[in-house]
Amino acid sequence: MTTSKQQKQFYTEPEAAKALGISILRLHRLLDEHVFNDGTARPAEVTFEASDLLLIGFWSRTMPNPKVVRMPRRL
Q1: Taking the C-alpha atoms of 62, 64, 67 and 70 in order, what is their torsion angle to the nearest 10 degrees?
Q2: Could you state, in order of their start, the residue ranges of all structural domains in the chain?
């Protein structure tokens, strides 16, 4: 199957949040919890690729599951 719609190469934070159906605050929380959790600050401006949105969407929809071992937060 082919589509004629062009996929964006990069997404800004507002575009990513809109594409995911979440608020920018929720996006920042997910990034802080899953990406920028080693003590470094989240950059002022972050851009995303389509694959990033896929992973962030997964994090946004998943609930804690006792059968899934999550990596501990880095301190």
Answers
A1: 90
A2: 13-61
DSSP-based three-state secondary structure for 3: coil
| Predicted model pTM | 0.73
Mapped onto helix, strand or coil, the DSSP state of residue 24 is helix
| Per-residue pLDDT tens digits for 40-49 | 889 999 999 9
Digit-coded pLDDT (tens) for 6-27: 678 999 999 999 999 999 999 9
């995303």: which residue's tokens?
48
Taking the CB of residue 20, how many other CB atoms lie within 10 A of it?
A: 20
What are the angstrom distances between the C-alpha of 1 and each of 4, 9, 33, 54? 10, 20, 36, 20
